[in-house]
Amino acid sequence: MPKEQYRETYVGRKISHVTFNVDSPAAIQQAAHIQVITKNLYAQDGQRVPAPYGVLDRRMGTNQKDANCDTCGLGLAECVGHYGYIHLALPVFHVGYFRSIITILQTICKNCSRVMLAEPLRRAYRRKFMNPELSYLQKKNLRAAVHKKAKACTKCPNCDSLNGMVKKSPAGILKIIHDKYRTKKPTDAVVKRVLKDFHEAKESNKELTTMINSGLIVEMSPVEVLDIFRRIPDDDIPLLGMNGLTRPEHLILTRLPVPPLCIRPSVVSDIKAGTNEDDLTMKQSEILLINDVISRHIASGGKSELVQEDWDYLQLHVALYINSEMSGIPLSMQPKKPGRGLVQRLKGKQGRFRGNLSGKRVDFSSRTVISPDPNLQIQEVGVPVHVAKILTYPERVFPANLQWLRKLVCNGPDVHPGANYVQQRGLKHKKYLKYGNREKIAQELKCGDIVERHLVDGDVVLFNRQPSLHKLSIMCHRARVQPQRTFRFNECVCTPYNADFDGDEMNMHLPQTEEARAEALILMGNKSNLVTPRNGELLIAATQDFITGGYLMTQRDTFFTKDEASQLAACLLAGPDATMRIDMPPPAILKPRKLWTGKQIFSLIMKPNKKCEVKANLETKGKNYTGNKDMCVQDSYVIIRNSELLCGSMDKSTLGSGTKNSIFYILLRDWGEEYAVRGMWRLARMASYYMMNRGFSFGIIDVTPGKKLIEAKNKLLEAGYSKCDGYILEMEKGTLQCQPGCTMEETLEAVMLSELSSIRELAAKACFRELHPTNAPLIMAQSGSKGSNINISQMIACVGQQALNGKRVPNGFEDRSLPHFERHSKIPAARGFVENSFYSGLTPTEFFFHTMGGREGLVDTAVKTAETGYLQRRLVKSLEDLVLHYDMTVRNAMGEVVEFRYGSDGLDPSYMEGKDRPVDLARVLADCGALVKQLERLTLTQLVQFLRVCHHKYQRSVIEPGTAVGALAAQMTLKTFHFAGVASMNITQGVPRVKEIINASRNISTPIITAELMQPRDQEICTSKLKIKPGNVQIVSEWAVKVSAEAGRAGAWLNLALQQLARQLPAVVVKGLPQVYHTLGIEAAKSTIISEIQAVMEGHGMSVDRRHVELLAGQMTARGEVLGITRYGLARMKESVLNLASFEKTADHLFDAAYYGQTDCIEGVSESIILGVPAAIGTGVLQLLHQHPRAEPLQPRELLFDRPEFHSSIWE
């Protein structure tokens, strides 16, 4: 049955909330269809028939295709399964509630089972617990408060009996001991009375002396605990944090539910006889066996030691059935092979929560290898015909598409475009079109039928590449069916997906309803996502060869004849521009023959004809700008006026992504996304055609150094080496001047490193002087399409110093880096300097050093990827439900406000044209000036136009309500830093620093206090000490230092000095969030988080919009304390059980929720995904209300005996 449109009529099925609690033995029995008694799996007749009343009894469902369930009579696919139960011969502790059982025992009296609180306290706490508005977190805190008070009580206020310490026994597994007389002295009468028998035994056996005190400690068996719990009065249950549905005795197992067969299937093997049973089935069989043994022992009056031993064994196996990863099991009792318990099925990446509920496999998806295709438009994706025949879309028949769909039905499933199935209106079954009379079915098509047709050109598809680190990793494209066997798309779209074509695979999904298609096209559309929400920079833009092509075309010495120019202009005629008119500009050179410059032809990309209204204006420095606007030597000052390139050559800064000065950014912001996308496509076609005809190759000849270059390099090396030898000599003599805070050894390392690094830089400069402007690697480096100056100099001149951890290669075991050098050698070659180039080849030692450097890069990247992946998961889990509402506040799923106005101005980061600002005023003014023909004073019209444009841009950049700002902030704050933080002595950088901030770590690795000097320029003041006697300084507390002033004339100025200090104090920053919070308060902590994260990002040359960082800081501090984004912080931020369980510590959260009787109201994102409810973010924020017409109020009916004559007064 194909998906219908989503209608509100399905609302009745929506799960409104989920309540957790602990089942009572009666409820377990009531839910079960059968009591499981026998340990045998199969009957003894050799027919493989499940044993009646065994764990594989067919009344609990079926796990074979050919058998039916004995309870409901349905087959494997329809029967949902039925529960059974095992009645345990003796009660055992539930491993999940073991800590809760100990807590309850510490809270109540072991004699009268009352909570050990005085009556007034008990009443006060009960009143607090009964408050219906009590949140989950408050409930936990209240229970902890009751526990703390009761635990300290040694004498019960109700029955005056003695209570001691209750704790887990260190001796056995899941044993509880009660140290009743812990507070009493050995001379106490009570203790003497208890130990009387032991002393008598000691007389006859002196070895018992050491064991006497153990007589004061009582072991509590599950039977005793069960008895105590049963006597707890109902009035005291709320004080334990439980709700009315659960009682403490339910935490001790007397009956064990047996799950249905369908969740523990047997695997029947054709090869060998017998079946492979599930771990749960085998564990239940073992439990039944031990149960049987215990029952027989009890019935026959066996030895108590035997019963106790079997009881411990039963306790262990029931615990392993629930959680198979228990620690502390004695070697004698350890199971032969570890199985999978119930908890193991739920937790972890492959468990139920993360593997099957939060993330699922989907239908209507495809995956294959990707290839580039510059002829496709930016928003198109080429789909192999093979895929198009399998993916179908359910199209409803109506008069306009009837003939077309008939044709598709006639084509059938094997011819594209065709159809696979037809669902006729009113019928339940679909007709498969591979067989049967297709012509007849086509003629019978009528309005309202549904045809599952093949994917065709123009269909809306979602395209995705993993890992999906940000929202642009899945975008919406239009399909274009092609005969090849790979997905193809324009290379301009590689950046957001981070895709390359070395064998990457990508996924494509086909949305199945009209609503889904509309939402995908508008919200996820490729055109709507040209910019990144991280800081509003362009992300989809020209890459690699397109930039090289644009750079070469716009060089000063590029000229085209009429034929060449016309041919290049004709490249623009395709797709939507196929019938476009192109107006060629007048040629730049008329004699001796007409020639057009590359800049003129390039300008056609922006404005192909006079009718085109686009007037782009841009003035910016290019990548190779040398510092003279009018006559830049490299021709790298770009001026575009009214869509005409007047000067400057195009490069990565004006064509590529990651900048706000590119042509496409100007087109997008001033003229709309359609023009920007079309401009990119024109460039892709023109540049690739130009490069194909011009030729652009990169061979070994391009990296061959000339004689001059080799001589220059040798001179540089000689000079550098002699300097280094000089430094080594100075150190050996002890005359090397040490740098501040460094030993002589460290100083030598520092000066050698800087000297050797400069050799590579100088060699690179010499290299560029020698290379011809047509050199391919040079062109690529200068245009910014691939590679850098360092790469070129390493290939041609000198590979340079190899660094490990930002230092030279260290010595190994025997005071040398490799066995090829002398011990204690300090020469450059022995510590990782590579003087050869890749062209000349490396010597063996140089090769080893080079591989060491490369290895460090690889390991670092792998570690960082894993760390940032986990960091991102934590961030997303904590921020996922933050949504901007229609009152412009940012709230979480519970409706609690995190920010009163998003980013304090309510603007969308992806629309910021300036740095964090919605309008780049200077550019708008220049743009308005360029549009006015003659020079004149600033007129009122111009001013009004300027203000109107600014206002329009501001209004456009107000963020849309319903935006999932939290998830965006989580994605944008983290982009993997692919380079290691430079390991300097005193500061943590990069991922480790971000991790410290986000975890709100108490002990950070490099604590620093930053203070500003009042007059940084005055050297004398900086060097002089404060003349204060040590006796005048007192440390009052953690956050206060008292300095008393000297008596005398200075006291008069004290007041002014103090005010000055108060003004200076906020500029003193202590690096450690908890310290800042405790000293200066929550607002200071919030602003510290923001400034610290921004500082790390800027240190790595990454700009992130402040709004994202502010939101993250807001979430961490919204509860009035600094909560790290860790499993502990998250548990204090969120109430939802399902959200917490789907993050970490799954079993603990579920057991806790059941103990407290917690209700989850399915409001957040994780919970909605788990239960298949539309989440309240984006378009799901809205709900429709139906206003029902009010019925007329009913008139009171005249009563039968309500007559005036019956109303006579009794006094008459």
TrEMBL record:
Enzyme Commission designation: 2.7.7.6
Compartments, as annotated in UniProt: Nucleus
Transmembrane segments: none
Catalytic activity line of the entry: RNA(n) + a ribonucleoside 5'-triphosphate = RNA(n+1) + diphosphate
Pfam family, any one: RNA_pol_Rpb1_2
One MF annotation (Gene Ontology) recorded for this entry: DNA binding
GO cellular component: DNA-directed RNA polymerase complex; nucleoplasm
Matching SUPFAM superfamilies: beta and beta-prime subunits of DNA dependent RNA-polymerase (SSF64484)
Cytoplasm keyword on record: no
Domain RNA polymerase N-terminal: 249-554
Single Gene Ontology BP annotation: DNA-templated transcription
Function per UniProt: DNA-dependent RNA polymerase catalyzes the transcription of DNA into RNA using the four ribonucleoside triphosphates as substrates. Largest and catalytic core component of RNA polymerase III which synthesizes small RNAs, such as 5S rRNA and tRNAs. Forms the polymerase active center together with the second largest subunit. A single-stranded DNA template strand of the promoter is positioned within the central active site cleft of Pol III.
Family as reported in the entry's similarity comment: Belongs to the RNA polymerase beta' chain family.
NCBIfam families: PRK08566.1
Protein name: DNA-directed RNA polymerase subunit
